[in-house]
Amino acid sequence: MADFHSLTVQHVKPLTDDAVAITFTIPKDLAQTFAFTSGQYITIKKELKGKELRRAYSISSSPTAGAITIGVKKVDKGGFSDYANTKIKAGDVLEVMPPEGRFVFKPTDKAKNIAAFAAGSGITPIISIARTVLASNPKSKFVLVYGNKSYKETMFYTELVKLQLEYANRFFINFICSQEREENSLFGRIDVSTVNYTLKNKHKDTVFDDYFLCGPEAMINLVSDTLKEEDVPAEKIHFELFTATEIKDELPVNLEGLTQVSVVVDDEEFSFSMDKKAIVLDAVLKENIDAPYSCQGGVCSSCIARVTEGQAEMVKNQILTDSEIAEGLILTCQAHPTTPTLKVDYDDV
């Protein structure tokens, strides 16, 4: 299931003082394997200091680019993002999982008006979505509100300005800077007034088909709540978290004893016993079962599986809809078994 392929780094481009764009060459024999929809991400596997790390990074390039580019902002010292910003160079080979993810824009023949709100590295999937929206129909429009500390720390700034020039009168950027007063930008953060100014004033004559939000959880919640207060249907609001609020692992009640677990991965079935207080994915990996995973924090969707017998309860869920949960889907990195037996299927998702 965790099907990694060796990809060669084509080039590395600095975006800011602490962020780079890494482009991978896609061999012809892997073109279909690495075909993607705008908004998806790839997972990279790398061993550093004797420990295997897996990190998910959204794709910034267009699906028609013939290569895959990701944006990596340095957020750790000695971890993968630090390595990516200081060590990776053209010609290096990395282990990469094919694209996945549910935060996507699927182009149609109809013109679409899209509004997007991003902060920091949350721009990475948004710029890919913007490219696709604008290229898919000559009448489509894209409005972007993008928050950063300053222009110096704005990822893909040059690319966004070029896109604005290429699609004049169809691509509109509202830069927001919180620490520097910059020309052609608003000062402050993305807040309720920013959302209302953008949608009810600056672009009041535009009817938007969908809204895409990407960045920190607090920003996403604020924008989403503001949109809902303006009667925007929930199904038109799409979001992806890049950082989530820390939530203590508050165990569901009555998690005493063991659960007999059966796991299906790549048409193979594995059985083992686990403590109900443990997390399903942790127990699966402890058994050396090659289940898919990436962030292990409930932010990506790599570890989704279907419960086909028994029950499991998630500590945190910011991805699955109520209907998907009703169908039996769980994030195994957030789930505790609550019944004597549990069967999960990673293939049936």
Highlighted features:
oxidoreductase activity, Rossmann fold, alpha/beta, Ubiquitin-like (UB roll), six-stranded antiparallel β-sheet, 2 iron, 2 sulfur cluster binding, 7 helices, 19 strands, Elongation Factor Tu (Ef-tu), domain 3, globular, FAD, 349 residues, Ring-1,2-phenylacetyl-CoA epoxidase subunit PaaE
Count of DSSP-assigned helices: 7
Quaternary organisation: single chain
Number of strands: 19
Note the gap between the termini: 12 Å
Radius of gyration: 21 Å
Which bin fits the share of residues in helices?
A: 10-25%
- Class derived from helix and strand content: alpha/beta
Ranges with pLDDT <50 over ≥5 residues? 244-248
Please outline the major beta sheet.
6 strands, antiparallel
Quick one: CATH superfamily of the largest domain? Nucleotide-binding domain of ferredoxin-NADP reductase (FNR) module
- The ordered H/E elements are EEEEEHEEHEHEEHEHEEEHEEHEEE
Instruction: Describe the strand arrangement of the main beta sheet, using strand numbers.
Output: 4-3-6-1-2-5
User: Which CATH architecture of the largest domain would you pick?
Assistant: 3-Layer(aba) Sandwich
CATH topology group of the largest domain: Rossmann fold
How does the overall form come out from the CA principal axes? globular
Cofactor: FAD
Protein name: Ring-1,2-phenylacetyl-CoA epoxidase subunit PaaE
InterPro entries: 2Fe-2S_ferredoxin-like_sf, 2Fe-2S_ferredoxin-type, 2Fe2S_fd_BS, Beta-grasp_dom_sf, Cbr1-like_FAD-bd_dom, FAD-bd_FR_type, Flavoprot_Pyr_Nucl_cyt_Rdtase, FNR_nucleotide-bd
Organism: Arenibacter nanhaiticus
